[in-house]
Amino acid sequence: MAQAKAAYPHWKLRFFTVWIGQAFSLFGSQLVQFALVWWLTETTRSATVLATATLVAILPQVVLGPIAGPLIDRWNRKHVMIVADSLVALTTLVLAALFAAGTAQIWQVYLAMFIRAAAGGFHQPSMQASTSLMVPDDQLSRVAGLNQMLQGLMSIVAPPVGALLIGVLPMPGVLAVDIGTALVAVLAVLIVPIPQPSRLAAAAGSALATFWRDLRDGLGYIRSWIGLMAVMVFAMLLNFVIVPSISLVALLVTNHFGGGVEELAALNSALGIGVVAGGITLGIWGGFKRRIITSLIGIVGISVGFLLVGIAPPHLFGLAVVGFFIAGFAQPISNGPIFAVLQSVVTPEMQGRVFTLLVSSASLMMPISLSIAGPLADRIGVQTMYLISGGMCLLMTAGAVLFPPLLNIEQNNAVVTSTAAN
Description:
There is one protein chain. The chain has one domain: Growth Hormone, Chain: A (Up-down Bundle), CATH 1.20.1250.20. It contains 16 helices and no strands. The chain has helices at 11-44, 47-74, 77-101, 106-134, 140-168, 171-191, 207-223, 226-247, 249-256, 261-285, 291-311, 317-345, 351-380, 382-401, 404-407, 413-421. Helix 2 (47-74) runs parallel beside helix 4 (106-134), helix 3 (77-101) runs antiparallel to helix 6 and helix 11 (291-311) runs antiparallel to helix 14. The longest helix has 34 residues, at 11-44.
């Protein structure tokens, strides 16, 4: 089934109008996330509270992802993005009012975080699925690189700006910034025509029965395509291997390097700067013609970065900084092309379901991995975890190269897509 591309002329103007609006929204969201985490830290000084906040932010992706996919493929994606951003603004407005009244409680902050994350669980796959219909196929990798660069840039900019605003504004004033940025994103989506995929023939039956049929079709679509199933399993394993290393940075700094907050900031900054540099590089370069090769090379880069951290002795902290920069640089090289592959080869009518199932399954690995990594790091040492992560990434990359359905996913989609659509 042929996939419609660049359904409207002047795609750059139309797409980047929406993209800039989403950049504002992302900035506001990360700024508020920083402010809320800092408020929880100052209020409770509890690691359990912060861990719960992290879990609250992850759960919507795991639980709602499979539900969101069929709905995104059935609903108008432009409307989904508008409602999601509006819900974020409304939730933040209510939370700001609670802070202004001096009645904000921890459970209310948790609830606000959950609602915001749930809205993001609908918004992000809607934007990804719409991108494949707004951007020409040969530009998808560059756009993916820009998205990765944006994520890295926000991880560098939002925390210090958030810290600055917390110092000069009350909490309601900080939250008001996110309300404004969400409204900018809504306006950008409102004024730009966003193409929709051609709808498959509506199946007979109740709305609930049709929903479950759509969900089964999405799962069946993935299961029937060995290469796509391999991508999902590969993403799950990568999350399982990589997440612990990212979450243990503070312990690496204190236990191995004997450092403090300055060293922790240096590693976080090196990672963020690397992500920005890698995103810019991918945005300019575009990657190899076979995008899956670009992605696998990025995973090798993450492996090299982690291995450098794993072999860095306590007196060579600079080597760990270099390792974090390399891992950050390789992240968009790895993530960007694989999303471009999926946007290119998955039929538009299935993209909402495929993207949400992929994100949900990968996110599911995070709490499982973290529950294992903590006790394991206590037994074998936190630095050893980086050696394990780097080595496992290399082994997984070698396995991917030796598995033709995954390696050739860009070439074998036509037959599978037409079969799945029948």
